[in-house]
Design brief:
The chain has 18 helices and six strands. The chain has about 475 residues and is an alpha+beta fold. The strands form two sheets. It has a four-stranded antiparallel beta sheet, with helices on both faces. A two-stranded antiparallel sheet has the order 5-6.
Length: about 475
Amino acid sequence: MKGTLEDNASSLLTLIGGSNNIISMGHCLTRLRLVLHDEKRINIQELESNDLVKGCFNANGQFQIIIGPGLVDKVYEEISRQRGNTPVPSQKPPEKRGNLLQQLIKNLADIFIPVLPAIVASGLLLGLNNILVNPGLFFDDPLIKHYPSWQGVSGIINLIANTSFLFLPALIGWSAVKKFGGNPVLGIVLGLLLIHPDLMSAQQFSKTPDQVQYWSIMGLELKKVAYQGQVITVLLCAWLLARTERLLARVVPDMVQVIIVAPVTLLVTGFAAFLVIGPLTMLLGNGMTGSILWLFDVAPGLAGGVFAAILSPLVVTGMHHLFLGVNLQMIGTLGYTTLWPIQVMASLAQGMGAMTIFFLVRNKKMQGVAAIAAVSAWLGVTEPAIFGVNLRYRFPFMAAMFGAGIAGSIVASYQVKAPSIGISGLPGFLSVFTEHWTIYFVAMGTSLLCTGLFTLLLSRTRWFRQALSPGEAG
């Protein structure tokens, strides 16, 4: 990086129109997310030349600047510090809300992104533990049988890895209630309530429904069933909790709020959860899972190929966040997911598209961006590759869709399953059941090879050759 972080952040702030042009600012794993007064004040050309910037685009009413994983946190903190020295207008226009689908996608992203590090870490640790406990990898027996001293290590890794998935409703409850404007601590209590050990687990209920116990309340019989892995249940309950808490806070006198608002809020939400929301959303979640399984059973190759091919365009729109909830729902219901292994193919393909551009162009800055973006995609973060490189040239993005589609078809045809989700890209195999590793490595190689080949071929066509300017083409 040519300049210091402070200098580049200051330049970036100036190029987006200054601090006074910012209505609100946030960030995800790779991007700054800005809501601005006037996007015409942005100097796009100079902004993309900033050493910190890998690309920028507008989506869902936000101007998003790709910085990269890790560095985006430092840039956000530095810009926030520099903004603190500049007066911000007291009158702020309302944020652009967008249509209902855009609002839904944005809300899901805001809910899942804060808990994503815990989920990814747990998935990665589960994958590492699979190497220790699954037979057939190095010996006929599990590795820890030949090295008993590793049994304790395996036990601790497994405990840590399972914690995020075991208490997932509490994590989602905290994040969702915070997003909906309620007390996030009550969101944690809500999540723990839904998986209380006095309740029969959802997995056990599916096996022995006749053994479930009931609460008898004024003639109503409520099942004592927990909702592990039921993402939709937690989200709707979190929304109800936040709305109830805010309503009570408006009508209850200040002096008695501390003894009324929280207890009544939890009572209302708890009764609604076990009476209406839980049973209905469990039916909905099971129906959604069954529909996906039916589709992949009827035409697995076609379903897997189409899903892998369209995933990258879904990332562009932000709709890919919907599938995080679907994956978690499938894991909670079935104990595995068939979608996550397919999604990894798209990450590999976008990374290969960016790396091929590295060899096709002569521009040093673009080569640097392409190399960093490719590595980022191969470690599961595809936005720098998609927005910083592949969409700019168009043909590598299309080639990645083709390559991912072929690989996704292979993954689905062999019914590859993953008991967890973790880091996508090259480490993605760690989330897959070990008996599927051989075919999965074949699919990963197919995604890389086909994407690289398609990118090279498309770059030589007259339709896309012009995308490489004379100063860039190799």
